[in-house]
């Protein structure tokens, strides 16, 4: 049944059916790393800078910013942060997706490789642990 050894499988591990944009022009030309502000606090996500909730938060990946804000499904403080600053790229601490507010798309890039592995080290693999 095998159709060859070079099958395309890069999307198999995406937990949600979104198309990733690989050519977001807002990605900086540097290897991204997990900001210190994104580390767990007492086993939880670090709190939103504004409302201090510890679920569904995002971290701004703008260099030297790294602010923590809650998602648009909470009190959308990360969206407010983007509107106020134009910082465009942020990372979900819940599902590890990376989003560009300017492109309004989920994005990925080889510059995020180190960030992804640091995230798994900090938060574990999020795929349905029993
Ligand atoms: Zn973009
Ligand atoms: Zn908030
Ligand atoms: Zn920011």
TrEMBL record:
Q: Which Pfam families match?
A: zf-UBP (PF02148)
Q: Can you tell me where the transmembrane regions are?
A: none
Q: Does the keyword Zinc-finger apply?
A: yes
Q: Which InterPro entries match?
A: Znf_RING/FYVE/PHD, Znf_UBP
Key word Metal-binding present in the record? yes
A GO molecular-function descriptor = zinc ion binding
Keywords associated with the record? Metal-binding, Zinc, Zinc-finger
Hey, what's the signal peptide range on this chain? none
Q: Where is the UBP-type domain?
A: 22-127
Q: Which PANTHER family match?
A: HISTONE DEACETYLASE-LIKE PROTEIN (PTHR47665:SF1)
Q: Which named protein is this? A: UBP-type domain-containing protein
């Amino acid at each position: 049944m095998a159709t060859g050894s070079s099958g395309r499988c890069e999307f198999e591990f995406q937990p949600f059916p979104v198309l990733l944009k690989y050519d977001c022009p807002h990605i900086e030309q540097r290897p991204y790393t997990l900001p210190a502000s994104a580390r767990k606090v007492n086993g939880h996500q670090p709190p939103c800078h504004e409302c201090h909730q510890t679920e569904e938060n995002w971290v701004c990946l703008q260099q030297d910013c790294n602010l923590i804000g809650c998602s648009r499904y909470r009190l959308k403080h990360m969206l407010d942060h983007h509107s106020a600053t134009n910082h465009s790229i942020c990372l979900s601490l819940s599902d590890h997706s990376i989003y560009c507010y300017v492109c309004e798309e989920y994005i990925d890039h080889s510059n995020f490789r180190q960030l992804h592995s640091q995230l798994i080290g900090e938060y574990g693999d999020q795929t349905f642990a029993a």
